[in-house]
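Q: What would this chain look like folded?
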Amino acid sequence: MSKLTKEFYNVQNPALGAYLLARFSLGYLEENQNMTPMPLLFVVLPMIYKKDVVDFISSTQKSSSLHFFADKFTEKQNSNNDLIIQIQGLSQQYKMMTLEALRLSIIGELISIQDNVYILPLRDNINDFKPKTKDIRKMGNAAEKFGIWCSRLSLVEISQILKVRF
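A: My prediction, written as structure tokens:
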């Protein structure tokens, strides 16, 4: 493993991904009392592992919407529409990491998969995890906020806004 690959893995690793998937699922559940559909998890890491996206999510109010968040990318002063367009390709690239993160989140009892392939976050276990760095806290908060926004929409609406296929 090269030094650059090792550094990449230290930042974007399945253990962090497990925490982020759990926080996303927690936000989704707390907003509308429904469990997260599993296909939706495959857009979480491509979104939250991008610093620009986390910064945009963090600067957008929780009460806003996914549509409002996506519109921020196309504003002239931001001009980052390519980030939204990249999500589909990134979700394919991150598929194995997402699956590994999902496996770790189950083993770590952060989530449970229900028979109908919906994700149930285990709130007490998620809340026991205390991130030590400001950046990981920010990523966790962004993942949860992203989950809240997604919970207000159908998979079809999310796929149209984020330009992804489930």
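The chain has one domain: 14-162.
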